[in-house]
Amino acid sequence: MKSEEFYVIAFESTHHAIQTEKDLRTKFKIETIPTPREISASCGLSIKFSKDLFTDVTDLLKKDEKKYSVFRVERVGGQRQITKVT
Amino acid sequence: MDRQVDARGWTCPKPVIETKKLLESIKEGSVVTIVDNEVAKENVTKLAKSMAYNVDVKEMGGDYYINIYSQEVVKDVLAQPKKLKEMTILFGSDCMGEGSEELGKVLMKGFVYTLTEYTPYPKALLFVNSGVKLTTEGSDVVDYLRQLESEGVEILSCGTCLDYYNLKNKLMVGGITNMYTIVDKMNNAKNTIKL
What we know:
Chain A: Residues 7-68 form the Putative Se/S carrier protein-like domain. Chain A: This is Putative Se/S carrier protein-like domain-containing protein. Chain A: InterPro entries: Se/S_carrier-like. The complex is a heterodimer of chains A (86) and B (195). Chain A has helices spanning 14-25, 54-61; strands spanning 3-11, 31-34, 45-50, 68-76, 79-84. With 86 residues, chain A is an alpha+beta fold. The radius of gyration of chain A is 12 Å and the shape is globular. Chain B has two domains: 3-70, TusA-like domain (Translation Initiation Factor IF3); 81-194, Hypothetical Protein Ychn, Chain: A. In chain B, α5 links the parallel β7 and β8. In chain B, α1 packs parallel to α2 (38-50) and α3 (101-117) runs parallel beside α4 (142-150). Residues 73-78 of chain B have low confidence and may be disordered.
């Protein structure tokens, strides 16, 4: 069974998402993806990053005053489980 | 009796058209098409394979001799992978929709990512005009496209377009194609979506 764990940051504003992507991608290997459907309250764009970047990325985000949420996405086989982290 | 198409010196898509005509006119036997460049070799090979022929290519003196012969085995209908859908997507631009270029590129990235998440996959993705920027060096979606290719999705970039943007040597995923194949793919798909 293929299992996967990663994190996504969901934003309320598209501009905020694009700007954050620009800032983060200079330092980390991240990807912009459409927000998983299970997460409803957002602009539709999310930033995906791997588990090992969690501390670094969330530390950097703390400086950000605009609203965002971080979710953990776990996938085992076809089942996707999403938990809100911050 | 072997039949021959000497396509040396011909420009694309004539080698493909003439080979197709000859293949359609014969009932059995084989056809040899001679071409003098790599792109024509690829395109004729693709055509022959799409018509369920076997292909052997020999290189002699800088020319390619493409031997096309029919398969003796009965086609196995069940061998057709079920995870592909008779659908073609034509990428006419590296942006999704019109308006902001920045947003268009973000949306396109999201679209290609989401394609990897849904089955059945489309059978073919065709890239024309600035769409070829998605299959070449510097593209953010190369990894997603490679993933789709490994699942059996055909990734084809327009040769004329790659040439126009000077990207012919920078193709990172899939093959090079011409308008003949593009029309062929679209005509044979049950559904074509243009982006």
